[in-house]
Every structure is written in C-alpha cells, then in structure tokens.
Amino acid sequence: MRVDFHTHTTYSHGKNTPEQNVIAAIARGLRCVAISEHGPASLFFGVRGEKLMQLRREVDRLNQRYANDIRVLLGIECNLLGDGVCDLPNDPAMFDVVLLGFHRAVFLRDSMMRRAVRARLLPPARREDAAVARAVLHTLERYPVDIVTHPGEYVPVDIPILAQGAGELGVLLELNEKHQTLSREQLRQAAAQGAWLVANSDAHRADRVGRMDRAIQTARDAGVLDRVVNRQGVSMDPSLRLVRLGL
Fold it and tell me: Could you give the C-alpha distances from 16 to 10, 24, 31, in angstroms and in order?
C-alpha cells in the first residue's frame, strides 16, 4: 500500500499524536498519510474552530519536517446529516482530502435519514437503503468529497445505486479495515457499476496506521484488487477527484 487516507489522532478520539501517526506511516513504507478527523457536527469527537486551525498548522509543520520521507495531508471525515447535507466547514480549500460518512451522535437534518436509522433492523424491503444511497449521492454532487467512508456502517445503503453514482462522480468507496462493511458480493456489484475503491486503516492508534490486511484480503477474495487505487502498481483513474493530488 502507498497511501492511508483515513487516520485519527488525539485531536479527536485517537490515541496518538499526528506526528506519531506520521512516524508510523513512514515505518510502514507509505508515501502519503492523511490525518482525517471527524467533522464539526460530531457531538463528542468533532474538530472545529481554533482546534481545526491548529491541526492545519501541525500538518504543515509535519510536511516540512518529514519532507524527504512522506507527504502528509489534512483530511476531514464529514458527517452525512441529511439528503444532500453534510458538515464540511465553509472553507473546504483548507483540506487536502475530504471524506464523507454516516456516524452516530449527530443531529440529523431530515425525516428520511431519521427513518433510515430507525429502520436499519427491519427486513430490506422495509428499509430506506435506496433513499440513503440517493442522499449520499446528492451530497457528493454538492460538496467536493473524495471518499465515502465505510458505506453501510450504522445505516444500510443500496450499494449498486451508490456505486454507480460514485463512479460517475469520480468518488471512491472505502474498504475500511476497522469497519468491514462491504461483503465480497457487494464489492463485485460496486466494481460492475464502475466504482473505484480505496483501502484505509481508519486507525485510532499509531500502530494501526497503514494496516489494511483484512480489507485487501476481502478485495482479493472478491476479485476486485485492480479497483483499489492506493495499492502499489494500480494507476489512479483520471476521472477520480483525488487525481488532483498527483499520488
């Protein structure tokens, strides 16, 4: 693996500092690592205001200090709040990479998402999977999101609908090492719809940075390794939003 776009630190609910994550990424042989803390709407773990500006300065400092070893990105893991709504701060240009996921402990903005959360234990025919997929896609159309994190975690989502739209928009679907949300069949469905994938650690400890063994094994079992863009030897498709980073 050459990049880990999804790691957390003491700025939210991680156990180690950004610098410790960077040092661990270098030891793992990564070319790039992102510090991607939770968006401001997260009640307990959101990073906002001066704390977010401090993290931007810290990432800039780490880029200077370890310029010969690794590239460090400032990311943000935004919260899906409703149909077409997330909590990306008003200055998205301050972030190098933008992630979007559904998380608990946020105030949802519309009744559809509240129904979807309540219905997650119901049979598929009575859930809101397709509506959730469309809500995510509407959000991707409005915001400069690069990666959808752990799709299906906490609230079910229709993977074929999400994958087709994400593929058309140039947004990656995440294979999350910590939250194994996509089955082999769903990965095959996603690939068939033209979606590209990214494996991330979602590390909350430095010793987990860059570790994506289970995620990669699932992709291997599904026969979609050639769709995982942060593997060595896989070229990033020019249609992807992340291609701007030149990784």
Answer: 6, 10, 20
